[in-house]
Design brief:
single chain; alpha+beta; twelve-stranded antiparallel β-sheet; 3 helices; 14 strands; globular; disordered N terminus
């Protein structure tokens, strides 16, 4: 096994035959990068760079898959690019060039880690990284949630159950009743699709280190995760420090718009706003208006309960 195994586990890869001419990942020759470039990095730094490279490769794979429309690679939280999975994808032009660079860099990082004897990456988040976050294990984020602006609010709780190298885990409750599943989100703020609580959630929308003016694209999945998703787009319209619920956050505000399914073959518009913490991806506010009630929600952080003694 390599010294730098995939940061995330491949959940599902469906390989189908594709007609036509296209570059395949097997034809993409890694662009050589010298492992000596990383000789001054310790194991933790090598792991972090490997994570970054694989996350970017996953983004490229997702973009290719979405454009081609074949749904060949099932990507969600906990999924990164498994290089052979790109065999069935049409990657060419700039994307093929970037994948060649990423493959070469990933292989160089593996060699550098092997020379250092780094072994397996740790599952737990580094203590210094955890100390920078605006939340801690055991604390409960409390949201006021409504299905629409005039609905009666209910209290949604997300209690931090684990801080991992690449994600944060929460247990969820609604109006005091525990919800099944685990709300797992990456450090950009994208929740896992499979096995999550029955809550409206987005997939591959948020990126690390959001910047003002940045354009985003992803999907919005209903609470029951049944039926087609909404296609979501967004743009970062504001960012900066802000105190919310007694905590200091580095906030990115994102204007949302898109199309949601309605009826058998129809669609309807959706619009709204999202605010997240740029350091942890923690959701601070989500307001979406849509004629399809499955995609309408008002969710706002109102307090943070301390960890139980």
């Amino acid at each position: 096994m390599s010294a730098l195994p995939l940061k995330r586990t491949v959940v599902a890869v469906a390989v189908l035959a594709i007609a036509g001419c296209a570059n395949r990942a097997a034809d993409i020759v890694p662009r050589h990068e010298d492992a000596a470039l990383f000789a001054d990095r310790d194991c933790a730094q090598l792991f972090e760079e490997s994570d970054r490279v694989q996350l970017r490769a996953a983004d490229v794979a997702y973009a290719v898959d979405a454009r081609v429309g074949n749904n060949m690679v099932a990507l969600s939280l906990g999924v990164t690019v498994f290089w052979p999975a790109l065999l069935a994808m049409r990657s060419d032009g700039p994307e093929a060039d970037e994948l060649a660079q990423l493959k070469g860099r990933h292989e160089a990082l593996q060699r550098a880690a092997q020379r250092r004897g780094c072994g397996e990456p740790p599952a737990a988040m580094r203590a210094d990284r955890a100390a920078e976050l605006p939340l801690a294990v055991g604390e409960r984020l409390v949201y006021r949630q409504r299905s629409h602006a005039n609905a009666a609010p209910r209290e949604l709780g997300l209690r931090v159950s684990g801080l991992r190298r690449d994600r944060i885990d929460f247990t969820a409750d609604l109006a005091g009743e525990p919800l099944p599943g685990i709300w797992r989100q990456d450090l950009a703020g994208n929740p896992q699709r499979a096995g999550r609580p029955p809550l409206l959630a987005w997939q591959r929308l948020l990126q690390p280190d959001l910047q003002l003016g940045q354009v985003l694209m992803g999907e919005l999945h209903p609470a029951d995760d049944q039926g087609p998703p909404a296609h979501l787009r967004g743009q970062v319209v504001a960012q900066g420090p802000q105190s919310i619920a007694g905590r200091r956050f580095d906030v990115a505000v994102i204007e949302l718009f898109g199309d949601a399914p309605l009826g058998e073959n129809g669609s309807t518009r959706l619009s709204g706003v999202m605010a997240v913490d740029r350091r942890s991806g923690v959701l601070l506010r989500l307001e979406i208006e849509c004629a399809n009630p499955a995609f309408a929600v008002h969710r706002r952080l109102v307090r943070v309960d301390s960890a139980a003694p």
